[in-house]
Task: structure prediction
Amino acid sequence: MELRLPELGEGIVDATVVNVPVKAGQPVKTGDTVIEVETDKASMPIPATADGTISEVRVKAGDKIKVGALIAIVGEKAASAAPAAKPAGPPLIPPAAVAKPQVAPTGQREFALPNLGEGIESGIIVAVNVKVGDTVTAGQEMFTIETDKASMPLPADADGKIEELRVKQGDKVNIGAVLAVLSGAGSPTQSMKRSEAPASNGQLPAPVVAKPEAVAPVTNGQATTVPPSGPVPAGPATRRYAREHGVNLTEVPGSARGGRVTVPDVQSHIRHRLAQPGGISGGAVTIPTLPDFSRYGPIEKKPVSNIRKKIAENLTIAWHTAPAVTQFDLADITELEAGRKRITEGLPKGAPKVTMTVLAIKAIVAALKEFPNFNSSLDVANGQVIYKQYYHIGIAVDTERGLVVPVIRDADRKSIRDLASEVASLAEKARTAKLAIDEMRGGTFTITNLGGIGGTAFTPIINYPEVAILGLSRAAIQPVHKDGQFVPRLMMPLCLTYDHRIIDGADGARFTTRLVQLFSDPIRLLMES
Amino acid sequence: MSEMNKETQLLVIGGGPGGYPAALHAADHGIKPILVDEGAKMGGVCTNRGCIPSKALLHLAKLINEAKEAEEWGVSFGLPKFDLAKMQAFVQHKVVGKLTGGIGMLCKGRGVEVISGTRATFIDANTVKLEGTTTGTIKFQNAIIATGSVPAMPTAFALGDPRIMDSTGALLLPDIPKRMLIIGGGYIGLEIGTVYAALGTKIVVVEFTDGLLATADRDLVKPLETRLRKNFEAIHLNTKVASLKPTNKGILATLEGKDVQGEEMFDRVLVSVGRRPNSANMNLDKAGVHVTDRGYIPVDMQRRTNVPHIFALGDVAEEPGLAHKATAEAKVAVETILGEPSAFEPRAIPAVVFTDPEIAWAGLTEREAAEKSIRFEKMSFPWAASGRATTLARNDGLTKLLIDPGTQRILGMGIVGIGAGEMIAEGVLAIEMGAVARDVADSIHPHPTLSETIMESAEMALGGATHVAKPKKVAK
Result:
């Protein structure tokens, strides 16, 4: 069997081989490290997926390889040819794979909603054309389903008798959901795959397959296309149009004969890209040609690093999707800071420092519990708000290679001391590029503290798909009017940016007000976190 | 002689098929360009001493040959009589003069300031000095270098004897020599040889390599070579001209080759061993513009040189040295100056050899496919099966398509036969549009025309052509 570079995580398309501890002829067991790779985020071992003997190693240290690339060929042991856990190859999702009717031992088969195309996860049953007891023949239209892209008939994949209907008109069903149970000998044939079946009942094939949107414009690294050999088939006018709109033609599926890309294909690709937040990358928006800067003085050109590209991509998504508002406030941290200093000074040398960020995590968790909207994500596609019942707080860390955001998991269940030690260790990992990808995932809210650097206020950008982010600026002594006189107080600026789609302005103000209360009153912070 | 000191948004150096379209295109978009041309008349080598006069002469040659061939079909004109002065006048005035004058009028009418008979040399990256009919300096914001190329003349042959000519001299048709030696079996030598052979000159071609037209595919060269061997006295391949010696009786050439050795006497010699880019003596170094060892100016997709506001195009920039490539590049360079997202990225630059029969190709050649290990299938349609070719008594032709074995996309087209140069445009369009064989096969071609051979060769990819029994599929 072939060992290929598996998916390493969202957005990771390639990795650099740093170590190859095995060589040809060496036996390996499932789980043994075959190679070690490094991505812009982390380094990790790639284990063997089956027992066997390495018959050939195709990579060497220093190689940059793409997800799905062949790493090694492992000769299988004679009998142990268990279906390799999961061929770690490129995730080519065979159309209708999920729809394969499972043959129940009783001779009954389930008819499931087949894959309707890239990006379609569910549909609404708009018509049920059969009833229990009906005999259907392969190709006969059983249901009509409507997705946000099109409506289409669902033909039977084999002959049989309807034993049970599990859905009714108006039901919303997900891909793979069982729609009906059929009995009868008929085993589904290859030719009855959904995309071809409609031809037999005189209906036009469902448009999904032909729609460019459905042909997987690969943008999120979840699928890989076959690298195109040679130039993309597209006429000069199409190429010009693509250039004008900053479209990479290799990403555009062609609809004309032989896969030729036409101007409408490019237009629909652009529409699709704009409609799909995940499709917008930092470089994808229409960017006019830059002027020739060298005409005005000396310049130096450097490539953009992968990590920087990823940052650009995420921030661009947030910028394009979330109508964001930034709410400012000032928190009186005179007492909190005094207490923090006392505690820190009392700590033994080398103990993790209790920083303002650590205390801010506590305050944030308390506020998030009160305002669950801020701990949610908006699922536009399915029209849902997803409330998270955990509190994973991301901490923006400034590193030499760029911004990274490690995540403190279950911050609500950790003591200040635990948090201090975890923040310190994650920040150190971030600076030395040793963060694992999982340590940067799953955040529900992010804190970015520029207080150590300076500034009076700023407008942070939401860390998509979160819906809010708190920025802290440098605290300063300010005169505060109290009890008829001005007193010097240490005031810390709070800058809360939130996604106005699901958080109203009043809640934004309430949230910062709550934070101000918590920061200003250490006892309250203690009580409520 | 006039003195001038000017400033311009765009300076174009060279008035050939790269330079003047650039100036016109710029002028049409609100730029006021100045075009400096060394020649007295606009049009460059192409119009004055290349494509155009050679085609006028080849037209005469075609008439002569067809009149002769017509005797076999029952039409006799008698022996042709040549009025050399009138022929020269036809070429130089009715053809060249008309076109160069036309270009001059176009420039004037569209607001291009033309300074002819003047050489521009760089003083720095924003200034040129003018020498010639006009002197002075021009300061420019952008410049386009389109100075073309000149015939290469090895020093061994540069003996100062007027009987040893380059293409420029030969196209002036100084006389009709009895016997002429053509050094170099490239397209220039063969085209001019075709002209003189029709006028009655005995042509001997000496080619250093093992084949004529080195860049063309062999199957296309074969029908041409067959006919040329009939019309020329001799074609010596793998042969070198060791020396040329002017004598009273003629030019004594020493040939060294497999099938020919020793000295032979010729009335005239045409040296057509290639062309070299015209980049010397312009002080490009003062502008900071890089030039390769071979004299080419390297450019990017927008035709920018390493100095971003100085562009280069045409023969001086990169191979192939073809007028239509220069014209296409001119648009790209000007659009880039105008801030448009332009790029020179053709899929097919057609090449045409205007011999009899003509050879034309576009896109992938078998030669290139072999070099780059590109897989293809070849569909060859012999003109023996073409009705139109038969009516013209010219079945010595072949139309072939190179297609991708998987997608059947058309990667290249090659044609040998009369009129191939006109027909190749369809191949260019097919390749640029990303057409597959069925696109061409399903496009109805007019009957009876030679263009049907293109349709039928595409049909071969689909399993069989109407007029060929068995498709010859050669998979590589």
Summary: The domain at 211-223+232-297 of chain A is CATH 4.10.320.10 (Dihydrolipoamide Transferase).
